[in-house]
Amino acid sequence: MGVEPPFFEKYKAILQSSTEKEKFSTIEVFEEFELPLIDLSGLNLGPFERQKCIEQMDKAAREWGFFQIVNHGIPGGLLDRLKYEQMKVFHLPFDKKAEKKFLNLSAHSYRWGNPLATSLRNLSWSEALHISLKDISRMDECNKLRSTIQEYARKANLLAQKLAEHLAQILGIKPNYFQENCSPSSSSLRMNRYPPCPFSSRMFGIIPHTDTDFLTILSQDQVGGLQFNTDGRWFSVKPNPKALVINIGDLFQALSNGIYKSITHRVAANEEVERYSIAYFYCPTDEVVIQSCSEPALYRNFSFKEYKQQIERDVKATGDKVGLSRFLW
Ligand SMILES: O=C(O)CCC(=O)C(=O)O
Ligand SMILES: [Fe+2]
Questions:
Q1: What CATH code would you report for 7-289?
Q2: Residue 9 and residue 209: Cα distance in Å, rounded?
Q3: Which intervals of the chain form a coiled coil (predicted)?
Q4: Across the chain, where does the E strand assignment appear?
């Protein structure tokens, strides 16, 4: 029984019907870019170093919406163990992964490709296990997958809260905002696997998108492929084995009234090697209403639930997320 999702069968019709122009307009590739690298050990030094570290994060969140952190407090050994469990679960037979109650998680936790795609540029060559942390206590252990996720999620939650609080402080948002509005089970964790893709010049590993959260903590391997867009240009993020990548999500952009940027990013497909990444999406509980921290507000108030429902409707209708622009005044 094969491990790979049936990409070929599913995408055959779109690949065959795509125009010659679409087929031969290959995806542009850009130079690798070293994201700002912030050493979080500064937070535990004197007030001067601490302030400098917070200002570096603030600057990166405003200018790039992306930065990298080292000395973040998540042990390398834990990240290695998580990656090992991740590889094992993705190497189960496809039929098993696609079972309705796979690992006793909610329906659609295991996802692959983009079933709603209508054109070549909407196709993605990847599979993912998207775990709402609400489900974690009833998830099957599956070797040591569940317990390792639990261990990681606890640490990632504290790290995300700390980063969010430092950024919020600069914007004048009350210090306990995130403690009040987020809980360890309101966030989610997405494990991604990008199998080698024979059409790597024509489709993505993940199509361009912004993240639906306050911020994302991303652990990626050494393969590379993550790219982000600034002023219409695409940059590739150079992998750093010691660093975690942080990116601002839509909710922080709205909360900060557009000061922090939720940047469009994507993952390039790779013809030769498989790639793994793990994204921790730091989210509030569903009923939390996101309100801009300053006036005049760019966006109308919306609850997290309302935001997710709008995305679901847009994805159903067009195969793609519209996102924050729907909520502009
Ligand atoms: O795999 C990556 O580097 C990024 C994944 C990502 O953007 C996501 O899961 O939202
Ligand atoms: Fe993302």
A1: 2.60.120.330
A2: 25
A3: 142-169
A4: 32-33, 37-39, 66-70, 110-112, 127-132, 188-194, 204-209, 215-220, 226-230, 233-237, 244-248, 265-268, 275-282, 289-290, 302-303
Residue of the CA atom closest to atom 1 of ligand 1: 277
Q: What is the ipTM of this complex?
A: 0.99
Domain spans of the chain? 7-289
141-145: long-range contacts, CB 8 A cutoff, minimum separation 24: 142/85, 142/89, 142/103, 143/85, 143/88, 143/89, 144/81, 144/85, 145/85, 145/86, 145/88, 145/89, 145/103
**The model's pTM:** 0.96
Neighbours of ion ligand 2 (CB under 5 A): 211
| Distances 219 to 3, 63, 70, 144 between C-alpha atoms, Å | 23, 22, 12, 19
Residues 228, 60: Cα–Cα separation, whole Å:
14
278 lines ligand 1 (CB under 6 A): no
Q: What is the pLDDT of residues 148-160, one digit of tens each?
A: 999 999 999 999 9
Q: Does residue 209 sit in helix, strand or coil?
A: strand
Q: Which of 131, 129, 126, 107 is nearest to 10 (CA)?
A: 126
Instruction: Please state the atom number of ligand 1 nearest to the C-alpha of residue 247.
Output: 7
| 125 Rama sector, left if φ>0, alpha if ψ -120 to 50, beta otherwise | beta
